[in-house]
Design the sequence.
């Protein structure tokens, strides 16, 4: 497969997952079926009771948009990722109110700190010992670190940590983010499905060595549980429902990312099937589908994704995803 197709597939798979999942976020699978007359499998305009009401088909949320500006900052650094690279990405993204209005509290607080805005004294954060900050906000944006380091898992993990420390300086979030970055790195380098999953486990173990300790369930152990669920071979729907009910598919890093790996194994790496499962698993669907789409898109390439989706997403968001993919190929693959 052409390298460009893998890169484009990862960007487009992530964007498709985000845009499609924006309409199912915060719903249960049962609510999704009731609302849409079945599981959602296509891009739709933003429903009124979502975070993107009235938005055009293909409009993405904070998940893919933050990844896009992270990718742009990585390119501008020439692959020499530093703390400045991370801050530039955050500030440029924050300058787009259509996306920044969707920012989670952890990321928003980090942007305020970079801008020199004092963070309010919030007793919740102190009482929780930062446990509440162990979210999936790092993992959702980090697939470009994998694309910039095809087959180089160690560098992908190192870059992921550097890019995520400003917003998610805790072992759970960094562990989850490194799992995604390493899996994308392996997929972009031409790894097979088993190697991609093994890369995810390498990333989750390495990432757990960084950041503040938080008292939450292990991302790695829940990934192991997700693989056990997938190995039951219950079929995609029953597996999706069990992943969502046993592990959870919410904002926590130790829910969303393990679910992604269970989806990856169940979908056999197929980008459309993986995104469908992520979109319909319930809860934080756009984030789960973004990450699942990024990994499987790099594995399958862009050819399996409907051609119209690229045009719709680029138009709705004023983004040039094709050019971004070309620049990544030129900078990191030639």
Sequence:
């Amino acid at each position: 497969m052409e390298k460009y197709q893998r890169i484009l597939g990862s960007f487009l798979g992530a964007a498709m997952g985000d845009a499609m999942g924006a309409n199912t976020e915060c719903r249960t699978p049962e609510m999704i079926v009731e609302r849409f007359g079945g599981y959602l499998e296509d891009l739709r305009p933003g429903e009124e009771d979502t975070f993107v009401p009235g938005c055009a088909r293909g409009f993405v949320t904070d998940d893919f948009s933050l990844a896009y500006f992270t990718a742009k900052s990585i390119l501008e650094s020439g692959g020499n990722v530093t703390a400045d690279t991370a801050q530039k990405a955050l500030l440029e993204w924050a300058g787009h109110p259509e996306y920044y209005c969707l920012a989670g509290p952890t990321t928003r607080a980090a942007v305020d700190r970079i801008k020199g805005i004092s963070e309010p004294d919030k007793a919740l954060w102190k009482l929780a010992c930062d446990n509440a900050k162990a979210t999936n906000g790092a993992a959702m944006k980090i697939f470009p670190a994998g694309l910039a380091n095809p087959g180089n898992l160690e560098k992908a993990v190192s870059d992921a940590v550097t890019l995520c420390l400003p917003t998610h300086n805790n072992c759970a979030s960094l562990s989850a983010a490194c799992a995604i970055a390493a899996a994308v790195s392996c997929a972009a380098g031409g790894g097979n499905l088993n190697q991609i999953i093994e890369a995810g486990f390498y990333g989750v173990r390495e990432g757990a060595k960084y950041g503040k300790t938080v008292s939450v369930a292990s991302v790695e152990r829940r990934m192991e549980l997700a693989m056990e669920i997938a190995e039951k071979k219950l079929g995609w729907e029953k597996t999706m429902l069990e992943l969502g009910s046993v592990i959870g598919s919410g904002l926590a890093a130790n829910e969303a990312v393990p679910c992604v790996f269970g989806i990856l194994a169940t979908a056999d790496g197929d980008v459309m099937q993986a995104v469908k499962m992520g979109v319909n698993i319930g809860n934080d669907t756009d984030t789960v589908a973004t990450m699942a789409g990024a990994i499987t898109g790099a594995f399958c390439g862009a050819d399996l994704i409907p051609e119209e989706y690229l045009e719709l997403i680029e138009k709705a968001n004023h983004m040039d995803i094709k050019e971004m993919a070309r620049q990544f190929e030129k900078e990191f693959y030639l």
Notes: The chain has one domain: 3-118+135-332. The chain is about 65% helix and 0% strand. The domain at 3-118+135-332 is CATH 1.10.4080.10 (ADP-ribosylglycohydrolase fold). The two ends are 15 Å apart (CA to CA).
